[in-house]
Structure prediction request, 205 residues.
Amino acid sequence: MKRSKTSKSWMSEHVSDAYVKQAQIAGYRSRAAFKLIEANEKYQFLEKKMNVVDLGSAPGSWSQVLASLMDGNGNIFALDLLDMDPIKGVDFIQGDFREQRVLEILEKKLDKTHLDLVISDMAPNISGIKSADQAGIIYLNELALQFAVDWLKPKGNFLVKSFIGAEFDDYVREVKKYFETVYTFKPKSSRNRSSEIFVYGKSKI
Prediction:
């Protein structure tokens, strides 16, 4: 099959991307690692001993950052619809977080472990229809927030990827109900053409 101009353009951008090159040098599975690193440089929420859930973890770059920092201390639970190659110190579950059955598997693994941090890089399959994509990620954002509210310790923190769109401001207002301070930011490692934006909830009330 002949490549389209769009796919050729994406591939050209990808191979010349400075963050892709840095990820390859550092051994990260994707450039997304730098989004978590930037968020932590800005807000200082990663610690050497934590209990963390990484939602939408595949291919595993955020879990790699956590595992490298924690070095066997604390617990890292990761979950994704797609398979993820093993990472030492990371307990991975493959499944759709939208399904109650999958949530119950995760909660069973957690047992009574209350969390210091919930991070979510979940996103829907992009359709190109802005309203549908926005609704899809907000739904995932809401699920992640509800999970964080249920499982975070007091003063625990929450980081979630979202998209700029019609429902985004309402979502941020919802996050503010549960955290002392809420910030929104776009990392430098996020592509300029992307509408993604991150919401950080500091210190669960």
User: Anything to note?
Assistant: Confidence is low (pLDDT under 50) at residues 5-15. The helical segments are 5-16, 18-26, 33-43, 61-70, 100-110, 130-151, 168-176.
